[in-house]
Amino acid sequence: MADFHQNGNIATLHNLRTTNLDAMTHELTTFAQSRKISLILPSLFSELEGDALPKILDELAQVPYLNRIIIGLDRADADQYRHARQFFSRLPQDHVVIWNDSPRQKAIGDRLKTLGLYTEEAGKGKNVWGCLGYLMACQDSAVVAIHDCDIVTYHREMLARLVYPVANPAFPYQVAKGYYPRIGENKINGRVTRLLVSPLLIALKRVIGDRDYLDYLRSFRYPLSGEFAMRTAILPDLRIPSDWGLEIGVLSEAWRNLAPKSVCQVEISDAYDHKHQDLSAEDASTGLSRMSTDICKAIFRKLAADGTVFTTHVFRTLKATYYRTALDLLDSYYNDAKMNGLSIDRHQEERSIELFAENIMRAGAIFLDNPSETPFIPTWNRVHSADPDLMREMLKAVADDCKEYQ
């Protein structure tokens, strides 16, 4: 049985195991009659060849309340795009595959370049941003959910629990963030959340003092989860980071634009597992090494925007405080795992902590060298103001790709 603890900053909606999926699905189907619900799936072509995505589609095919599914397809050529359309054709819902590497989509990118509104960095953030633009251009959804395509433990109840808080018209929530335990292969996973974000937020509070923003981030049980749902009214002003800071960036945008009572976290699964990133200790441009640096930069930028002054000395103190805090938390994780019959490799965990400590300094140096860096993709409100026809052209480009590459 789950607990019912509330942290006092944002609402936590637990899974108390007192309702069933059929009842929740019936409610969502009723809500969807007047508040259409859509789903975005940012996908690499390689994920079509894995074990997770086919099972995800089998589950989604049984969801009656979805108005539309938008698949953002990255790293695909023309033949792979054709294959992707066939692959997703099993979905009974209205769905579309956006081929992000198509000549027409690249032409859209060229239009943005001429306006100074284009980001060169491809990745999940840019993929999600493009899908959100397409969704807004359709003008027919009140709620949108986003989740990853590599969830090996996926069940349609995850989606139902994720969208329920923002789909229910009696609830005040504009953003719902999913959380769950990261357990797989008889061990505790989620290294970046456990060993970087949690101790970093504690260390920041000790070094720079109390900040409401830090308390807000610390309220999320899994701030790096890729599963969240939003009411579409907030999308035009949403700033999407183009790097690995996407999840922290969205939470920061919710903090900037919304009242705390408009944000919640919701328990969506008892067991969650997906593809694991390599630590990449030898290459700072990939894997968890790159991810940890981008996440640190996202947090530092937000704190600086709220008035925190960072210096080299602050980052040195932060690194030392983080390192000690992370080691203390590692003891707690180890004991928790031991009591529950799970394993933790303390050597590999401490290696991760050492790498993350170095990347705190790396992220700090990058921030100090270029404090005016703008990692966010422009909001769709700004894009529409600069080029009122572009969103309509996006719809046409996707439709024309579908016709040409059948």
From TrEMBL:
Provide the species name. Parasulfitobacter algicola
Query: Know the name of this protein?
Result: Glycosyl transferase
Gene3D superfamilies reported for this sequence: Spore Coat Polysaccharide Biosynthesis Protein SpsA, Chain A
- For this UniProt record, give its keywords in alphabetical order, as a comma-separated list: Transferase
- Please indicate which superkingdom the organism of origin belongs to: Bacteria
Q: Which GO terms describe its molecular function?
A: transferase activity
